[in-house]
Amino acid sequence: MKRWLVLSLTLTFLALPGKSQYIPSQPFDKPVKDHSGEYWHWGNTFQHLDVALSLGTSGIGIELAAPVCEFAQVRLGYELMPHFKKSLSADLMIGNEKAIQYDEKTGYRKETSYDEVRDFMYGEAGYDLRDHIDMTSRLNMQNFKFLVDIFPLANNKKLHFTVGFYWGPSEYAKIESDAASNSSIACVDAYNKYFTLPDVPVEIAGLGTGGFVMGKFKSDIKDADGKIIAKAGDTYKMTGGSKGSIMIPVKVNSFKPYLGVGYESNLLKKRNDIKFAITGGLMFWGGTPSMYTPDGVNLVKDVDGLTGNMDSYVKWKSKLKAYPAITFRIIKNIF
User: Fold this and answer.
1) Mean predicted confidence (pLDDT) in 51-67
2) How far apart are CA 161 and CA 264, in angstroms?
3) pTM of the full structure
4) Is residue 163 left, alpha or beta, with left meaning phi > 0 and alpha meaning psi from -120 to 50?
């Protein structure tokens, strides 16, 4: 009985938790490194927090970062692009004739169908029809971001690769007609309705419908029933649709994967809690952006040879299948 009592007490003692150090079966060649003073080490998942201000091609923003293991950290943030503007314009066309034309010999403006339509619409509805419209393009980029920085070099916590995603509104820019041009857009829409009447007024019967010339169709355009409503090579004249104004959203995918590379280091020699980082990469937003007019025409895919400054604007947007995101960050360690 005493023997079983002694054995039970011995096992109970061995089972109690203690602070004794684990001694491996084989000795280490090098002493175990003390990680207590380091930011990065195993077991410090979410034990530290950084806050950063960012500035770059994807906007200005704020973010939080925390380590998840010895070689990786997670970053959460939000970025907003200031609403930069670009002025655009489109000329009026009546039938197959541009509103403004000049005599090659004299240099004076020639009388065109536009003058007849202008007088007609002013008498019918009191509209003062302009020979062109002005539009403004505005950036509307804003995104939430979730990124993971991976530090591949064991002894270098400066170079890192970044993977993750941006998520935000699909409309990252838009083109809108200026307020002063909306009356002319409404005037053209009202003018075109005369051609849907059983008896088209004699004053305009031979002039044809109006619109704002954008370019020529790349291929045949069909309606919902499959009927061809415009042939390849025909001039595309944009109208305001049912709203009496022009609004062309520039859209991409809401979910945008990201892949990049960066460098992070101390900003000040005597302080380890303030750092800077530069990261460059690509935001993949799902191929070519779309730009649908109120008529349902995609300027990127359906129209070629756009006129005026619309040509360079649309070409630049259509070639940008992935957005270059270059960001500079100032980082402060909170704890």
Assistant:
1) 94
2) 11
3) 0.77
4) beta
